[in-house]
Every structure is written in C-alpha cells, then in structure tokens.
Design goal:
A four-stranded mixed beta sheet has the order 2-1-3-4, with helices on both faces. It has two domains: 1-108, Orthogonal Bundle (Peroxidase, domain 1), CATH 1.10.520; 110-182, no CATH class. A hairpin with a 2-residue loop joins β3 and β4 (164-167). By secondary structure, it is α+β, with helices and mostly antiparallel strands. Helix content is 62%, strand content 14%. The longest helix is centred in the first third of the chain and has 22 residues, at 3-24. GO terms for molecular function: proton-transporting ATP synthase activity, rotational mechanism.
C-alpha cells in the first residue's frame, strides 16, 4: 500500500467528522469557503507548509501560527478544527483533509467540480456559458469551476470533469497531429 493511500485513509475520518459537524451546525457553505481559503494560503506558502509539517516545531508554536494567521479570516469552528489536528499531530494532513472534505461536501450538494486549464483568463460571460454547458452535460444543479492559467497550452483550454478530459488546446491539437503523423 502506498504512503499516499495511507495518508488518505488517515485523513478521511477527519474530513468526515468535520463534514458531520458542519452539517449539524449548519455551517456547510462557510466551512467549505474557509477551507478553500486555507488551502489557497497553504499552496502559496511553502514555508507555512514546512512549518506545520515539521515535527521539531512544538505544538504550541504551531497553534500560535495558526491562530495568528486565521483568527480573523476563518470562523472559530474551522480554527478549532485546525487546532485539534495540531493536538493530534495530524496537521501535516491538512491539505488532504481539505481536499477530502470539499469532495464530500460537493457530493452532498450535487456540485460537480470542473478543472479548467486555459492559456488566458476567461471573462465572466465565458465562464457562465461554460458552466451552463457543463450543467447540461452532467445533469448537475451546481458547478464549481477551478481555473488554472497554463501558458504552455498556447491557446484554447482543457476541461477535466471527473475522469473525462476535453482538450481543445492548441498544444493538445499539435500533440494529436504529431501522434497521427508518427503512425504513418
């Protein structure tokens, strides 16, 4: 069994417990928003990730870091959960817990998560049109669009919906042409 799957097995009960508490306290949308913000902050700060994952840094120091960073940015419910992860020495799993929580929360809300990789930013009208098309394709009530700007695509975009990939990028078309030409 890989270490990644072990970490998911350890993180899943924490995500499930947080989801159950968020539902009980009717904090589901706020919790998802707060966790998304935390995830974004973590992905932008390698130093923060290293500090929270470092076993040599004391629990008290980690709690102080989290309280200083998130005291006014997230609700107390989420902050207390982060402190529990620190107490239980599971804070290094925070990204996986957040990922699993959002996955479970979106499943409850019948929300489909779309990963959009594009060479240039979409305007709001283009985003709305894409969301409507995805709703029709997936028969979903809600769609969450996660946009990543990737200049390597040259032009166009790539959409990932679950295991489906729709590649309309120029880089994808060039790869396709190269593949066909190599077949000849």
């Amino acid at each position: 069994m890989s270490s990644q799957s072990i970490m998911y097995k350890v993180a899943t009960p924490y995500a499930e417990a947080l989801l159950e508490l968020a539902k009980a306290y009717k904090m589901l949308p706020n919790t998802a928003k707060d966790l998304s913000n935390i995830s974004m902050i973590l992905s932008n700060s390698i130093d923060l990730q290293k500090s929270l994952s470092n076993p040599l840094i004391s629990i008290i120091a980690k709690k102080n870091i989290l309280e200083q960073l998130f005291k006014d940015q997230v609700n107390d419910f989420v902050l207390n959960f982060l402190l529990v992860l620190v107490d239980r020495r599971r804070i290094f799993l925070l990204n996986i817990v957040i990922e699993k929580y959002l996955e479970l929360a979106y499943r409850i809300e019948s929300t489909v998560v779309i990963n959009l990789f594009t060479a240039s930013a979409f305007n709001e009208m283009q985003q709305d049109a894409l969301i409507e098309k995805i709703k029709a394709m997936t028969n979903s009530q809600q769609v969450k669009l996660v946009i990543t700007i990737d200049p390597n695509l040259i032009g166009g975009f790539v959409i990932k919906v679950g295991s489906k990939v729709i590649d309309t990028s120029l880089a994808g078309k060039l790869k396709q042409m190269s593949f066909y030409l190599n077949q000849i």
